[in-house]
Amino acid sequence: MSRIFDASTTVHFAVQSLTAQDVTVVTNAIDAASVLADKDGITVHLLGGTLNGRHRFLYGTATLQKLSEYQVDKLFLGACGITADGISYPHEEDGAVKREMIRRADQVIVLADSTKFGKRLFHRISGLEPIDMVITDKEPDPAMTQVLSDYDVEVVVAKGGNVDD
To answer: Start and end of every DeoR-like transcriptional repressor C-terminal sensor domain (predicted)?
Structure first.
C-alpha cells in the first residue's frame, strides 16, 4: 500500500490514528513524518523543499519535482474550503503541492470537518472531478450533498476510531 498524506490538521489526526502495516507514505508535513516515524511497518518519504515554519509543511520546486516521481494508491487531503466550485486553500504555495498530490494518486480522499462546506478561500486547487470520497463529521446540507453526488463523490460520515486503511 502507498499513501500520500498532506499537511492539514484533519489529515494529521488520521496519521495519528493509522494502524495499517506495510505502508509506504509520502508527505510534505513535518509533523506527520515525525508521528509516522514512530510507527512500525511504515516507510516514510519526506518531500524536500522550502519550509513553511508556521504551518510546518514543505513546498516549492524541489517538493514538486520529488513528488512527480511517485504514484500512490491513495491520497488523504485536507480542505480549508469545499464548494460546488471545488477545493480551496489560503496558501498558494501549499495549493500547488496539493494539486500535484492529486495527480499522483489513484484515489483522492478529502478529510474535512463539516465547517469547511460552503467556504471558499483565495486559492482554488481543484474542482470536484478528481475527488473520489469526502470523509467528514456531519452530513453536508442537501444542496452540497447533491453537488457531490453529481460528481460521483462518495460522502462518508465518520464516527471516530483508528484508520486501518
So the answer is: 4-138
